[in-house]
Design brief:
By secondary structure, this protein is an alpha/beta fold. The protein contains 19 helices and 13 strands. The strands form 3 sheets. A 9-stranded mixed sheet has the order 5-6-4-7-8-3-9-12-13, sandwiched between helices. Strands 1-2 form a two-stranded antiparallel ribbon. A two-stranded antiparallel sheet has the order 10-11. The longest helix has 25 residues.
Length: 491
């Protein structure tokens, strides 16, 4: 609670005893992890993004994943941790305990005391962009993208997207100006009590029972800036003239698209967490806090997924607008089963993450998992912006061929030998042997090699193997190639 009060007051928390002070630009070259005997992986490398890909049981979490996570914690970094599985929070409790970072850990979930009213946060946070309606609209539509994807409606037409944003925009303006705050319940009430016909808009019985009308009346009586006057007048025209004249089918689809998503946040655990008070803010991770979203998808299903996507979007915005000169400590995003939390804007976010000192680590089983969630083009764009890629054991042909293509092809020289026998004129056998070389363009790493990597456990002496790649890098320990085979200890 003290940290949130300091943040709301606009003051910076002093560095926690025993953690490194924020590093200047030169310290981006400080090694975080040793890769083999001759190469190190630095803070600067981590800022360029990382993908860890391996089949279930390949050791990606307990191998390279554990190594990177502990490297971040040992360096004093804070970050946001997504929870796909029930044991993810316990895993990070262990990581923090083993790196003496337990006092930096914040668990956010239904069994915890922390709350985050995301609407009031966005309305009142520091910064010149606070309270801008369009920022809130984009936040909602980012969550809606995932909600519609779950319902098999990921390719919504542009018309429905535009009209949904239009209604949400006018709803936010109306409530914010009338009430001076933003509560999800009030946005919901405005939408479901809006007039459905021009006649109803002029009806006294509707006006006596409508929250939409109450907000228009309250907003009209409030003192407003010139910008608020303009925005309020525009919102009133929308609700009193444009919205009632929409066809019943169009109006129904727009309202249902939004209220069905809002409804999840208006009851139970999510209402308590996101629609009441605020005790934590994303900016705490810039000071070294490790914020774990303990709403695992395997336990809370779509509710947990949407809640974590919402928090991730808010956190990404907070990271992008922070002043790195004042708050230079890197911060990380950790997402195991990352395909469940991916949105169409992630590639754009990752494109500028390096300058904001954001260390993204996305773990998944195979490329097809991302393709099925956000599409092939978006997957290629996102993966292209993650410069470090670590491949563990995998039996998926598409992923293995994709990785082999990434390492490229080169001339491979192979020796050839041959033996032939023939019968001589006098009945004896004559043997001839041929020696030579052939060259051909082949994969640097054959796809089958990924299926042969060790997966750890007692059978492999707790050793996990992987092949690492980094864009623009030649590895010293791999005969000057762009990939290197590396082993990670599970214990």
């Amino acid at each position: 609670m003290k940290r949130i009060l300091r943040w709301l007051a606009g003051t910076q928390q002093p560095a926690r005893p025993g953690t490194p002070s924020p590093s200047p630009d030169a310290e981006l070259n400080v090694p975080l992890l040793q890769i083999g005997k001759h190469d190190s992986w630095t803070v600067r490398d981590a800022c360029e993004g990382t993908a860890i890909i391996g089949a279930t049981g390949s050791g990606k979490t307990s191998g390279s994943g554990q190594a990177l996570a502990k490297a971040f914690l040992n360096a004093g970094f804070g970050g946001l941790v997504m929870c796909p599985k029930k044991d993810e929070a316990d895993l990070w409790r262990r990581y923090c305990a083993e790196t003496n970072r337990s006092d930096s850990l914040i668990i956010f979930g239904p069994q915890q005391p922390h709350k985050f009213n995301f609407l009031n946060y966005e309305l009142s946070r520091p910064g010149v962009g606070a309270g801008l309606t369009e920022n809130l609209v984009r936040l909602f539509t980012g969550v809606m993208e995932v909600a519609e994807r779950q319902r098999g409606q990921g390719n919504a037409q542009d018309f429905w997207e535009r009209t949904t944003k239009q209604m949400l925009r006018n709803c936010i303006d109306l409530v914010a100006i009338a009430r001076g705050r933003l509560m999800l319940q009030e946005l919901y009430d405005v939408m479901v009590t809006a007039p459905s016909t021009p006649e109803e808009a002029n009806s006294e019985s509707w006006q006596n029972s409508s929250v939409c009308w109450s907000c228009m009346r309250e907003g009209d009586a409030k003192p407003k800036s010139s910008r608020q006057e303009h925005d309020f007048a525009h919102a009133v025209k929308y609700w009193m003239r444009e919205f009632p004249t929409l066809s019943s089918r169009t109006r129904s689809i727009i309202v249902t698209s939004l209220t069905s998503m809002m409804d999840i946040f208006l009851r139970g655990a999510l209402h308590e967490l996101f629609c009441t008070s605020t005790t934590i803010v994303p900016e705490l991770t810039h000071e070294g806090a490790v914020l774990v979203l303990d709403l695992p998808i395997k336990e809370y299903a779509e509710v947990g997924q949407l809640a974590q996507v919402l928090m991730k979007l808010v956190w990404q915005r907070a990271c992008e607008r922070r002043d790195v000169a004042r708050h230079p400590r890197p911060t990380f995003l950790w997402a195991d089963e990352a395909q469940f939390f991916a949105t169409a804007t992630d590639a754009d976010f990752q494109a500028t993450a390096r300058s904001s000192r954001i260390l993204s680590v996305l773990l998944t089983q195979n490329i097809g998992m991302f393709n099925s969630q956000i599409g092939k083009e978006e997957t290629n764009s996102l993966m292209g912006n993650l410069q470090t890629k670590i491949f563990h054991a995998n039996g998926d042909p598409m992923t293995n061929n994709w990785a082999a293509d990434l390492f490229a092809k080169s001339f491979q020289f192979r020796g050839t030998t041959g033996t032939s026998t023939r019968e001589g004129t006098s009945g004896d056998e004559r043997v001839s042997r041929n020696y030579g070389t052939t060259d051909s363009i082949e994969f640097e790493v054959l796809p089958i090699e990924f299926s042969r990597l060790r997966k750890g456990g007692p059978a492999n002496d707790w050793c996990v193997e992987a092949i690492a790649f980094q864009g623009g890098r030649i590895w010293n320990g791999s005969n000057k190639k762009n990939h290197i085979k590396v082993a990670f200890a599970q214990r």
